[in-house]
Design a protein that fits this description.
- Helix 12 (196-208) runs antiparallel to helix 13, helix 36 runs antiparallel to helix 37 and helix 52 packs parallel to helix 54 (901-913).
- Among the domains are: 245-327, Tetratricopeptide repeat domain (Serine Threonine Protein Phosphatase 5, Tetratricopeptide repeat), CATH 1.25.40.10; 329-397, no CATH class; 400-446, no CATH class; 447-512, Serine Threonine Protein Phosphatase 5, Tetratricopeptide repeat (Alpha Horseshoe); 829-914, Serine Threonine Protein Phosphatase 5, Tetratricopeptide repeat (Alpha Horseshoe), CATH 1.25.40.
- The chain has 914 residues and is mainly alpha-helical.
- The chain is built from 54 helices and no strands.
Amino acid sequence: MKFVKASLCLSITLALSACSEQVSVESHLENAKSYLSKKQINESIIELKNAIRGDNKNAEARFLLGQVYLNLGDGLAAVKELERAQQFNYAANKVLPLLARAYILTDSDADVLALSEQAAKLANEEHSHYLAYKTLAALRSEQAEQATESATLAQSIAQQSLYSMLALAYLELSQNNNDAVKTLISRILTIDAQHVDALMLQGQVSMVTKDYQQAALSFESYLNLQPRSGIVQLLLADALLKSGQDKAAEKYADGILAQIDSQPFAHYIKAMVAFNGKDFAKASEHAERALSANFNQFNLRLVAGASAFYLKNWQQSHHHLTMVVKYLPKEHQARRMLAVTQLELGLVGEISATVGDFSVNQAGDAQFLSSLSYKLLELGATSEAKKILAQHEASTVINAADNARKGILKLMMNDPSGIQDLQDAVKLDPSFIEAELALAYAALHNNDIKQAREIAIKWQEKYPEKSGGYNLMASIAIKEKKYQQAEQSLKQSLTLAPDNIFALTEQLRLARQQKNKPLSKQRVDYLMTLAPSNNKVLRHYFGIYRNDMALEKLQLAYQADNSDIKKAVLVAEAMVTLAQYKQAENLLTNLADTPKLPKRYWQLVVFNHRKQHDVKKVQSALERWLKASPYHIEPVVLLADLHANSGNNERALQVIKRGLDYHQDHLVLQLVKMQLLLNSKQIMPAKTLYKTLAVSAINDALKQGFLGRILLLEEKYDQAIVKLTKLYQVYPSSQNAVYLAGAYMGNKEPAKAAKVLEHQLTVEPNENRIKTMLAGIYLEGDTNKAIAVYADVVKKQPNNVIAHNNLAWLYLEQSKLDKALMHAKEAFALAPHIPNVADTYGKVLLKSGDKRAALKYASKAFDLTKGQDIDIQLNYIEALIANSRENEAKDLLSKTLPETDEQTQKKAKILARL
């Protein structure tokens, strides 16, 4: 009984509880609806959530909450609640259209299309509502046919429905019928000004038609209606940016980044705004953050590259601009930026491709190409500079200044046609003084005194009140060494323009050319009072005084302007002149990190190390020079020469090949390469290179000489003699004499070889290399002549091992043992590891009676050759016998296999003794 009561009480309690809970859920729903009617959105959300907490499966609460979220533009939250409402069987005619829109907001196009079967059961109005979203989803899924069907169906079931018009508008937009879209949107918004989907579409079509002002208004209206729509904030920011409302755009971007600091589109907006405001550091920072999030928009990449360019971050600029340059118009400024960036990075080979199709059709284009050519020329990239200049040449723009720049550049490249460009510039603008001045001095440089004088006279007549004509006439007189006339012209110049630096400097040059030291000092002292920081004046000053006082003046000028690299180099140059090598090295080392060091800096570094006889530092400096300025020819040639002189032809060739990578057709490098190939006896590569040189513009005698040396290496001596004779006749150097004599020796004509060498000694009587070779020839037939020549060589070259060794042998044959011993000892002291030297010393000692010492050096010679030299082996056996070591001698003699008749006879004599 008690059990029954208890059960009854429990049932009553549960029933009361359920009733109470039901009342609570209904109450929350009523409150929510009340709040919604008053547009108190946050309060309604709280009530609806409370209702759901009380009844998790309450379909109405789920629907209402989903509807609220959808109206706020929060697609994800709307999808969750509306899907639950549908799951709990809420009215399909209400939930399906809203769920379709929620899917649209979350880009769930497949889910929109999946609702099609259920939506077909809806009434016409609700069905057309769904069909608008289905049309959009089909278009976004690239299902054009399904989209057309959907829009057509919407029209057929409810033609005047707002959503039928919206479906048709989506379809028209996909077909680029923008005017039709605008008409349909206008009709919708006339009926319902707050139709959010129409406002969104209006904003989108306005962006397409570049009506950014209208797009911004549409997106702003949309955002006011659905404030939680993150995508519309971005679209609005973009529209504001493109309509020139940077501050307003940045405000929205900042709002987004306050919530999601990695949002790439917001960083894109910030980057664009910063770039427009010329805050390149900020633009670069935001652009990089957006790009790192894979937001690879073209404009963003362009801004990233341009910002890095203005910040001189060349690597970063190059990285970004190379990715977009192929999409840019020919005349786009970014092409220029990329070309300059490539120049700064030393990527010279890429520049012509970047500006290859650059059109010279507007102001500044030709000037840019001229400037680029000049910079390339400054780097030493002459061939690339010529390519760029050729583009300038092909331009149709006729402008005196452009012609003048082109002419000057051509003259810098040793192209005489530059004079014609200067003449054209003067014809185009007769008042263009600078062009005429350049033309005059170009003519003077080319020894066209007549043209230079005509211009000078014209100036004197046309501009009698100006000094230029008299300055030019003075330069002409100096060129002709008519110093009195030059002085008169300069005095007139200084009367018209007192203290003009050009005239004063020319007066100083006159005094120096006439070696008038007092006048030179007087004039340079005056110039120093007028222009104490002028580099040209400073160079003259030190050139005249060449002492510590002059160096101090240079140092003071440099201290006053320590950013002037030319002054620094001038100071270092003066230090080297005064043999202050360490001080010069310290100064030059301090400048080493300066970007784009001039050629003169590197020349001075190398020269200073050479003055200190520090070969390692010379090599290091040349390698650094080559790395810093790979288009400079000088370090290539010098470094190759350094390696060749140390006997490392292979490394020298590697350096030359590297130089040819940058200057493919450079004749000097090809000539050096040929010398190295021949010196290292690489016949086939030399023959291949000869084919190129044979059709080049070099002197025919050089071509004959190269072919002669190739034939010499191939041991075709009779053919080599013909070619090398031609070379020697035109270039009678000691080296060419050696080549020709070598060919005669190979052809077994020692008398003719001796004649060539004897003739060369009449030209260069102190050329010891020729004497040594000549003495070697005399060895075969005239011992006394050989001795005389070798004696002269060791007198002038006491460290000449060959001369000492051969003298020892010759004196030994004449039994002049004291002299033989002296030279043998000297030769061994100089080259103890040369087998023939040790062998000679041992032979002389044996003949002198010092048997034990003889055996020591004969043994050393034998060990050095490892038994491979038969003559040295036989001499060693003789030393063994002399020291009573017959058994060793017999054993070794039995293993000796003579190769010549002379060696056979000598072996027989030794065997007879044993």
